[in-house]
Amino acid sequence: MTSAPETTAPIGMIRTDTPAIGRSMPRAETRRLLAGRGRYVDDGAPRGCLHAAFLRSPFAHARFTIADTSTAAGLSGVVAVLTAADLAPVCRPWQCRSGAFPGLVSPVQRALADGRVAFQGEPVAMVVAESRARAEDALDLIAVDWEELPAVASLAAALSAEALTHPELADNVAWRTEFGSADFDAVFAGADFVVEERFAFERKTGVSLEPRGVLAEFDPAEGLLDVRISHQMPHQLQLHIAEQLDLPIGRVRVACGDVGGGFGIKMHVYPDELATCAAAKLLGRPVKFVADRIEALATDIHAREHQVDARMAVDGEGRILGFDIHDVQGLGAYSVFPRSSTTEAMSVLRAMGGPYRFEAYRARLECLLQNKSLTGQYRSVGHPIACAVTERLVDLAAARRGEDPLAFRRRNLLPVEAMPWTNPAGGRMFELSHHACLDAMIGLVDLDAKREEVRAGRAAGRLLGLGFASFVEFTATGSQAYGAAGVKVAAGDTVVASLEPSGSVRAQASASEIGQGVRQALAQVLADGVGLDPSNVRVETGDTRTAPHGGGAWASRGAAIAGEAAWRAGRRLRGEILAAVAALVQAKPADLDIRAGEVVEVATGTPRMTLADLADLVLFRSHELPAGVRPQFTVAEQYHRDDDPFLPTNGIQAAMVEIDRATGFVRLLGHWVVEDCGRIINPLLVDEQIRGGVVQGIGEALYEACRYDAAGQFTSGTLADYLVPMAGDLPEIAIGHVETPYSGSSVGAKGAGEAGTCGAPAAILNAVNDALAPHGASLAALPIKPVSVLRALGDLGAGEAP
Amino acid sequence: MKPARFRYLRPETLEEALAMLAEWGDDAAVLAGGQSLVPMLNLRMAQPAVLIDVNRIAGLDRIEIIGERLHVGARARHAEVLRSATVARAAPLLALALGNVAHEAVRNRGTFGGSLALADPAAEIPAVTVCLDGAILARSSTGERRIPAASFFEGVYTTALRPEELLVGVDFAPLGPDFRFCFREVSRRHGDFALAAIAFAGRIEAGRVGECRVVFAGVEESPRRLAAVEAALAGAAVSDEQAWRAAGDGLGAVLDPIEGAEYPAAYRLLLARNLLLETRRQLEEEAAR
Ligand SMILES: Cc1cc2nc3c(=O)[nH]c(=O)nc-3n(C[C@H](O)[C@H](O)[C@H](O)COP(=O)(O)OP(=O)(O)OC[C@H]3O[C@@H](n4cnc5c(N)ncnc54)[C@H](O)[C@@H]3O)c2cc1C
Q: What are phi and psi of B13, to 5 degrees?
């Protein structure tokens, strides 16, 4: 582990006294999950539970009338066949609106489509039956008259507006914007040279192991809707279920058990999930819906469909002067509710050029409606696109100057002394460690040896390449993003901690555990905050009935935001404990400390009282306490960051690839990451977050695509068509760290969950282009397909681009 | 993704199974390893009225030498064929191919006969069965047909098997000890179906190809021996790269590759050609050992 230049010690953090923070520990629930004791949505059902299946549109765009539901309803085992008209009285329509995107065009959406569908897979009717199989049987019996309408699928079709995604609109533009520096033209005019490229990115999706699933139960006596769901932010959803179903928020409980992966797909309002809640309310019986793999691939939010025309200006000394980017985003049939699909594109624009110093910027954006599934915030939202575009331009510029791409980067990376700095794209940069990461990466890769390997391999006729990608990932978003735009998304988190009998600590946190291990991280922070072993701290999350309202899991925020709340709660509980013990043993609180669950004298380490004895006394025999000693052994801390809308994090990735000229396949021979997420609470969890993120980035670079044909028919509906990278095809992913703690918090943690995904596609794209360069070929489209590689090399005739 | 309703029958004997097939014919589907059928049921692409599970029938999974010939029972699991010493001796090409079929978990259930009956264009087993001129044994309650592999595959997912017939096994006549075998495959990830694969069997005498057989998987709709390519290679030296290149260049006139948006016909043709050249290299390397 390499250290960043010394930073000031964060407030309240005793840097030598953190036995738990910084320790690699498996998650507390690992044993349970490995033993098959996970409790996912489909693992249980209450008595009398009904199962829902949806009739989904087979067309990308069509008008329809449901001619008959009576045959389906008459099938034995079927309890109800529901259409838009049935759900209308219990579930309001919704519409994406955001102050951040004034004039956003996104029509009203309903739990079940009413007379017109705008994407294939959109639910039009719902069968509730005694089993899922029976419900599916009944789907076949619903008679629908379809009138197909012209569909908008590709970006080109959307731009041309020959067909309209929604017939009532004038064109397919959901939103557009344009901004830039005042001196943009002058700066570009004065450039020594300008490199440019057109980039294309295909849609992909999250592919969580556990698909979306919901089990809703309505108790008419209490008027309470109880919702078990696989979701990243139960509190946000609670709010929307309450609003759409017209229930007081206190009459909606949303609870997440184990969540088998989120990646951003489980943070939106989905029609099928709301329809399930509405059906439960309507029928007064528990109703369960679990998306199958086709439903997941077709209707989980997609992401990353962009075409980017980008230019970068460079001066005579090889300094980056500025960027010019025109992004066209394929947004889908609606802007996703409540967070909006346009957010992804804005994230691209903000992250452009992130690691570098530059003067001028111009950005143009068109977000286009299409008759395709909705898009949304998938892991590392927008950043991988900005990173791939920026880093490819950087390599092009280095090549143009005949220069080592790392030398070009070293000159242009934003140095420590130039921060804090707000760049022309609007990104506020501070406490980043680009040069330290670059140096660490060179060591981690053993760069000279790898370059020699490439040279020797090429001499022997092999197509080898090395690629690099510096990156900035904005994490732990503050309320300036959604809150300021009037979108009800909590950016703060709360931790409630209590001293329990036996001296252990129990906490409720508003963060969400979705497999990333945040509960373990919070337990480690609380353990150090109070002064006991993490095994004696139990953190619970995910249930709106017990956890206070808060943000959940998004924007790599768990450690940075909930972690800070946990630290503060832990310190406060520690204060209560020390004050109580000081009064009991007639010492000064300052002379006491809590170590390994025991109150000791600071100076000598002499034990004065165990937390177990103290809890016993306070909880069961409080009448023995001296007058005036009334400790509060339940404390709460709410943490909202006031300044710094985002915590930027940084790093660099490297990839080594080989192209097989006989097939066009790209084989990844090695992948390296050095990143800086501030204080590392648990290195094991951070490293696995990075690795998992890199694997999703590898998928983005080489395998994954949600494809549609020209008529908007989805053609990637199974895992035989939608390829994810598999362990057997992956190289070792080596990871190194630089630690520059965030100085604005006590813990100093920033986000770590998305960095891997951010830089991996760019590093691989650059590596592939490095391998292609000696053959006069290059590529600028992701994923990199075997056929494209061979066409670029001239080994395969051009044809209709696949 | 739940199957439509079906009746489930589980015969204990071959006779019972054949009687059921005679009764249900087209309305029935045979359940062997279920690795292809069960997904098709779940997707409701297959909606048979009756499922006839042949997993209880004794003896249907035998792998043995009968007389001169290797017999592979229809229900022999991929994993068993892959590891069978008998297969390795009598028909090593089968084992070479099976290493490319799916992953361990699928190979533990998937069956030899199931793969033949399914007739996926990209499957390995049909191609090697054609390459080895296997005889496919189709039994019905009225008797048994021996169908030469060359006339068994009729197109994508279609075979010469009749609705009332059960595929019970395949017989392979031995090829001489001077035969060399080669199986090479291009698939996107480990265990994926082939984008293109080549099965080669050839007599190599004094560094020259004698009689030989060339079959591709994944390239055309059904596997078949390519007489023109076999003729072009006959007599060519293994070291004669030119001759093999010429044979490879001739593939364009011989093959009718599957067209697709992501993998156009020209790409599969290129893969086929490169696989042929790789086959030569492998033969050369093996000869040098
Ligand atoms: C993830 C995955 C990857 C795979 N990869 C590959 C691969 O790379 N290469 C490959 O070749 N295969 C692959 N397969 C398919 C696998 O090999 C199948 O098991 C095989 O093709 C069918 O065999 P089965 O025994 O499972 O047949 P089943 O699924 O039980 O049946 C398949 C069809 O054959 C019929 N049938 C089965 N047995 C008989 C019989 N004795 N008589 C008459 N009809 C019969 C059935 O009615 C059905 O129509 C893969 C499968 C999976 C799930």
A: -130, 165
Query: pLDDT digits over A329-350, tens only?
Result: 999 999 999 999 999 999 999 9
| Beta carbons within 8 Å of A70's beta carbon, 6+ residues apart | none
Residue in B with minimal Cα distance to A702: B188
Distant-in-sequence, close-in-space partners of A469: CB < 8 Å, separation ≥ 6: A387, A388, A391, A652, A653, A654, A759, A760, A762, A763, A766
Residues of B in contact with A289 (CB under 8 A): none
B288 inside 8 A of chain A by CB? no
For A130-156, how does the pLDDT look when each residue is reduced to its tens digit (9 = 90+)?
A: 999 999 999 999 999 999 999 999 999
Half-sphere exposure of A158 (CA within 13 A, CB side): 26
How much distance in Å is there from the Cα of B141 to the middle of ligand 1? 24
Q: How many C-beta atoms surround the C-beta of residue A74 within 10 A?
A: 11
Please count the other Cβ atoms lying within 10 Å of the Cβ belonging to residue B206.
Answer: 7
Q: Cβ(A135)–Cβ(A120) under 8 Å?
A: no
Output b/e per residue, A771-785; b: 16+ Cβ within 10 A: bbeeeebbbbbbbbb
Of A29, A32, A10, the C-alpha closest to A21 is A10
Domains of chain A are: 41-149+211-259+266-299 (3.90.1170.50), 302-476+646-793 (3.30.365.10), 489-639 (3.30.365.10)
A555/A677 Cα distance (integer angstroms): 13
Beta bridge partners of A197: A310
- For ligand 1, the distance from its centroid to the CA atom of residue A727, given in whole angstroms, is 24
B261 contact residues in A (CB cutoff 8 A): 707, 709, 715, 800, 802
CA A336 to chain CA mean position, Å: 15
- Asked if A566 and A550 touch (Cβ cutoff 8 Å), the reply is no
Where helices occur in A48-191 by DSSP H, the ranges are 70-74, 84-87, 132-139, 155-160, 184-189
Q: CA angle A58-A60-A61, nearest 5°?
A: 110
Nearest CB to B1 within list A293, A663, A786: A293
Distance (Å, rounded) from C-alpha B62 to C-alpha B52? 20
Residue A148, token pair as written in the block: 């197909």
**B157-169 mean pLDDT:** 98
pLDDT digits (tens, 9 = 90+) for A653-691: 999 999 999 999 999 999 999 999 999 999 999 999 999
DSSP one-letter code for A544? T
Q: Which residues contact B189 (CB under 8 A, 6 or more apart)?
A: A703, A723, A725, A726, A728, A729
Q: Is the CB of B129 under 6 A from ligand 1?
A: no
- A32 in reach of chain B (CB within 8 A): no
Q: Kindly report the backbone phi and psi dihedral angles of residue B12, in degrees, each rounded to the nearest multiple of 5, phi listed first.
A: -95, -20
Q: How close A645 comes to chain B (CA, Å)?
A: 42
**What is the distance between the alpha carbons of residues A289 and A273, in angstroms, rounded to a whole number?**
7
Distance from chain centroid for Cα B141: 26
> Å from A707 to nearest chain B CA?
10
Residue B101 confidence (pLDDT) above 70: yes
Residues 129-168 of A with CB under 8 A from B: 131-133, 136-137, 140
The residue whose CB lies within 8 Å of the most ligand 1 atoms, and thus the one to mutate among B35, B140, B166, is B35
Q: Give the torsion sign (CA, A397, A400, A404, A408).
A: negative
Both structure tokens of B8: 């489930």
Chain B residues in contact with A709 by the CB 8 A cut-off are 261
Which residue, among B45, B270, B274, would best test binding to A if mutated, counting the most A CBs under 10 Å from its CB? Answer: B270
Task: State whether residue A802 sits within 8 Å of chain B by CB.
Answer: yes
Q: Which two tokens stand for residue A664?
A: 């066009």
- Report the Cα A275 to chain-centroid distance in Å: 25
